[in-house]
Amino acid sequence: MNSRLKSGVKNLCSRLGIPLVGFAPADRYDHPPFTPWVPEEFRPDAIFPGTKTVIVIGIPVSLPALETAPSIWYLEEYRTVNALLDAGTHRIATFLNERGFASVAIPRDGYGSVSILKEKPVAFFSHRHAAYLAGLGNFGINNVILTRKYGPRVRFASIFTTAKIPPDPVIDEPLCIECMQCVKICPVNALPGVDYPKDLTDKRACATRSEELAKRYAAPCGFCIKVCPIGEDRTLFAREKTGIYDETDPRHEKLHRAWAHVRKFGVR
Ligand code: B12
């Protein structure tokens, strides 16, 4: 196990402004922690044979930008974070390759357009499952990974490497408090509730909403991550109370006016 390499990657992340990084041995995939689990052909060693460690990085999306969604502000924020993620994984893979450990960066998303997702709703690799195995957080009712620092308001990307790097522990205690606010706010009822895996997210409904918003340059939706009460970013931005998202409540009129203003511009 290469501890120096781990420090090297962590230092690189901190220089690149990447606040979250976790390490999972590739063989963690062989011991399903829950079902349904990642099918074999979606696992790192199947995609890049010889993978010993999956490194997952996470970059937050700004809560105030997200609150204006659907909006150009959140779209631009999302694009910026995506670009930083892909640049980050690329630089980390290069860092490892230069030290003699064959490594590849996996793109943060992996689909050509939302309409493709309506036919084929999955990507070739799931960063959510990787983030879980790398100890960055665990699944919420909203079907994404909740982290301690940013709740679900964080995006991930991964690197597969042949280097054996000391792992991080998986977070076992659930971070989701099952408040069901994400289920209630979803405009297309895509989130089924607690009975996972019997009830699965309605990916088609979610993708259709995304497609509609994209036509207006106002995707992604983001409602199910904005409303989540978990995450220290809520304190930073003085957004502890998720009741602020009831846009009929006059007590939060100042915020609502700001969001309505942003939503008017840059989109159809
Ligand atoms: C496709 C996709 C979408 C689609 C479809 C959404 C959906 N609900 O699935 C659209 C475009 C609509 C979308 C929307 C969103 N997404 Co999205 N999306 C992805 C993407 C590209 C691929 C997911 C995937 O295919 N994984 C691979 C498959 C194998 O895994 P899976 O889908 O999780 O399926 C597993 C289980 O659900 C189960 N399963 C699924 N279907 C079935 C069917 C049966 C019959 C069975 C038995 C099992 C089963 O088995 C699978 C293996 O365990 C990932 C990026 C990536 N490559 O990981 C981002 C990603 C998951 N999205 C992300 C985000 C943030 C969002 C949004 C909040 C939008 C936003 N940016 O504001 C919403 C949230 C939607 C939600 N609540 O689920 C983040 C999640 C970050 C996090 N904190 O966890 C990711 C990881 C992107 C990133 N790089 O960070 N997304």
SSE map:
Blueprint: H1 3-16, E1 20-25, H2 44-47, E2 53-60, H3 63-67, H4 72-98, E3 103-106, H5 114-119, H6 127-133, E4 138-139, E5 145-146, E6 154-161, H7 181-185, H8 203-215, H9 223-226, H10 233-236, H11 253-263
Antiparallel strand pairs: 1-2, 2-6, 3-6, 4-5
This protein binds cobalamin.
Describe what you observe in this structure.
The protein has 268 residues and is of the alpha+beta class. The protein has one domain (1-268). It has helices spanning 3-16, 44-47, 63-67, 72-98, 114-119, 127-133, 181-185, 203-215, 223-226, 233-236, 253-263, and strands at residues 20-25, 53-60, 103-106, 138-139, 145-146, 154-161. The strands form two sheets. Strands 1-2-6-3 form a four-stranded antiparallel sheet, with helices on both faces. A two-stranded antiparallel sheet has the order 4-5. Helix 1 (3-16) runs antiparallel to helix 4. The protein is globular and about 60 Å long. The N and C termini lie far apart (53 Å). Bound molecules: cobalamin. Cobalamin (B12) is lined by residues 36-38, 42, 78, 108-111, 114, 117, 121-123, 125-129, 142-145, 152, 154-157, 200-201, 203, 206-207, 210, 220, 222, 224-225.
Task: Give a short summary of the structure.
The protein has helices spanning 3-16, 44-47, 63-67, 72-98, 114-119, 127-133, 181-185, 203-215, 223-226, 233-236, 253-263; strands at 20-25, 53-60, 103-106, 138-139, 145-146, 154-161. It is α+β, with helices and mostly antiparallel strands. A hairpin with a 5-residue loop joins strand 4 (138-139) and strand 5 (145-146).
